[in-house]
Write a structure and sequence with these properties.
This protein has helices at residues 2-13, 18-27, 50-53, 55-72, 87-93, 193-203, 218-221, 256-263, 275-281, 293-306, and strands at residues 16-17, 77-81, 100-104, 118-120, 129-136, 144-150, 153-162, 165-172, 186-190, 204-216, 229-233, 236-237, 249-252, 254-255, 268-274, 307-314. The protein has 315 residues and is of the alpha/beta class. It has a single domain, classed as Rossmann fold, CATH 3.40.50. Strand 11 (229-233) and strand 12 (236-237) form a beta hairpin. Helix 4 packs across helix 5 and helix 9 crosses helix 10 (293-306). The longest helix is centred in the N-terminal third of the chain and has 18 residues, at 55-72. Bound molecules: S-adenosylmethionine. S-adenosylmethionine is lined by residues 34, 49, 51-52, 82-84, 104-107, 136-138, 141-142, 196. S-adenosylmethionine binds next to helix 3.
Length: 315
């Protein structure tokens, strides 16, 4: 069905931009990968995020929040962006006496897993907020464009159709870009971050911001011939993503240099560190039992190197 929707759009304009394609494939109200109703991750079909993998992750974050709340006198009110199925909320709520927990989420499955939270689909539904704004794998779930540099010219990937088949093509890219790909390389530009942050910080008055994501800095992302776009199906990289639209998770590595630049307009004391460093400095070992050894290794060593933690204060 998504294929038909895309084909109709392509017929009107000649192409669809890649960020429009990602938006439809992930968030079409009926057929999107994230908006289709699913509760638990299906082993073998979905990658587990850190909160889905283990409650230790949420316990460490809860402990971090408690510490910052005491040091800075920030109320224990939490707004979680893209809370997914609600696992992180559940673990934080079982560790901390939270006054209010709001989850911003486009799908509505969290309410089946966690109780005592308010789920909103849109930031317009919340009042001005002071407290903690947290997220895990949220900024990598925004639609993105794929920008290539070919013979010195920047071009963006679009989708066109031939008969029934969709295929990739490129058109000139003329907008400003803070991280330009090197010749022959491809960079993913998340297009909705700016306006999302503008809206968020209209509501977020004061407190602490913490986001964790899979990503790197511009200098390590702009020189990749294969780009940073990734498509997953049944726990594997799926190269033929156009065959499985709506069944594949489309994502890309977060550019923490770009995200930091955008957040610098709102936050102070921004820090970015590897997830491993964050978990170890927050004393993850205190929350582990012997049977958690494999999970701890995944969180600290495997994900710990690939994921980064960005934090800052809103005064
Ligand atoms: C990769 S999942 C991560 C879910 C969860 N944070 C976790 O770690 O398990 C990203 C989630 O963000 C949600 N999302 C992305 N953009 C959103 C937006 N603008 N508003 C609300 N939810 C959004 C998606 O629906 C999806 O559930």
């Amino acid at each position: 069905m998504l294929r038909e929707i895309l084909k109709t759009e392509i017929e009107k304009k000649g192409f669809v931009t890649f960020d429009r394609f990602v938006y439809l494939a992930l968030y079409h109200p009926e057929y999107g990968y994230y908006t289709k109703k699913r509760t638990k991750p299906v082993p073998g079909e979905d990658f587990f995020t850190a909160p889905e993998l283990s409650s230790i992750f949420g316990k460490v974050i809860a402990n971090h929040i408690r510490k910052i709340s005491e040091e800075r006198n920030i109320p224990l009110r939490i707004l979680e962006l893209g809370g997914g199925k609600g696992f992180l909320a559940k673990d934080i709520l079982s560790s901390l006496p939270v006054e209010e927990y709001i989850i911003l989420e486009k799908n509505n499955v969290a309410k089946e897993i966690v109780h005592g939270v308010k789920i909103v689909e849109n930031l317009n539904e919340i009042e001005n907020f002071s407290g903690f704004v947290i997220s895990n794998e949220f900024f990598d779930a925004f639609p993105f464009k794929r920008i290539r540099k070919i013979n010195g010219e920047l071009r963006e990937v679009v989708l066109r159709k031939k008969g029934n088949e969709l295929f990739e093509d490129t058109i000139p890219f003329t907008e400003e870009i803070s991280c330009e790909p090197e010749e022959g390389c491809e960079y993913s530009l998340f297009t909705g971050w700016n306006s999302f942050l503008e809206n968020l910080f209209k509501k977020f008055q004061s407190g602490y911001f913490l986001t964790i994501d899979y990503g790197d800095f511009c200098k390590n992302l702009r020189n990749r011939r294969e780009g940073t776009f990734l498509s997953f199906r049944k726990n594997r990289i799926e190269r033929d993503y156009l065959r499985f639209i709506g069944e594949v998770d489309l994502t890309s590595r977060v550019d923490f240099s770009h995200l930091k630049n955008l957040l610098a307009g709102y936050l102070t004391s921004i820090e970015i560190r590897p997830q491993s460093e964050f978990l170890l400095s927050e004393g993850i070992e205190r929350f582990l039992s012997p049977e958690d050894a494999i999970t701890a290794l995944t969180l600290i060593v495997d994900m710990g190197r690939k994921f980064k933690v960005l934090s800052g204060f809103k005064n």
